[in-house]
């Protein structure tokens, strides 16, 4: 998620300059198209009331906000799913998955990583992937100290999971049943290309932290600028977050979530992500069920990063989703939720039958969210019919008005 942060920082400056007429026209057209698709995305309400809210205290004293959802009939010692969000995001980014998992009967723990969401701000020197791994351990010890676990991490959250695996191998060995890596990477190389290629991308990556640090003292003054350039900002977020048509409400929800992250926090974590190398950590997962999910059109953590994870895990399942970008869990929520539920089912069967994961073949599947494609087509078709009816009605009114106008001219 590092490049989202930099893209948004650049986007704030672009919004401040909101002058480019061509960009404004394109953004307005994109916004109009997204308004048509408001019925496509599920669950307009992005709020969620947890059963329990708690605070886990990190090794350096930072207070980490966590929430727990517990289904009816759940008993201590049963499975808990822990969801770790990505860079510049927070707990709400998992809204669809936590609902689906809860409905399926699983206890769910979600948490805000340090300096994100409702967790405390961290000292810059502790904004590291290593520290995030220790943070996840503290959250687990506080929120779910017993019973089997399934760990799910998106983007930086996946990196956090890898750090946990490296630094707390005994916990993983004894309690973790399965792991899901969603749109993430085990290595920071190339994570700053922003889809522009290494030359331009490297320059953006180097300038990003400095730019964000300079903007940080002025962030509160950017609110009016954000409102003035909202359509441009939304278009930037749309480009780097999604790869299929999404609704205006989803893009606005995503924009507000990302821009809630202070610029200095973005700047602090970018070097940590760029310097990431967790390939060795993956070796501890060869006997665990692992799911790797990525969007084929992800500009921030391109598919090759997911493929590199899969190559090191012989028994893993790799799902590549067409028409999907970096925020795949929001763009294709039902699909991602179903993949996580299938992962849990596979891991449970393996455990019951004593099937060694390392002996299973590696699986790579390409999936298209056909249901979503159909909803998009229906929404656009309905809008076309509505527009045609409006044009016909307008033409009819004009035709009726013409004889009267002619009589008025004759009378004069």
TrEMBL record:
GO MF annotation, one:
catalytic activity
Keyword annotations for this protein?
Signal
Ranges where the record places region Disordered: 378-412
Q: Where is the AB hydrolase-1 domain?
A: 80-333
The record's listing under InterPro entries reads:
AB_hydrolase_1 (IPR000073), AB_hydrolase_fold (IPR029058), Epox_hydrolase-like (IPR000639)
> Is this entry keyworded Ribosomal protein?
no
Q: Which Gene3D superfamilies match?
A: alpha/beta hydrolase
Q: Which SUPFAM superfamilies match?
A: alpha/beta-Hydrolases
Q: Name one Pfam family in it.
A: Abhydrolase_1
Q: Which residues form the signal peptide?
A: 1-22
Q: Which PANTHER family match?
A: ALPHA_BETA-HYDROLASES SUPERFAMILY PROTEIN, HYDROLASE
Instruction: Report the protein name in the record.
Output: Lipase
Which organism is the protein's source?
A: Knoellia sinensis KCTC 19936
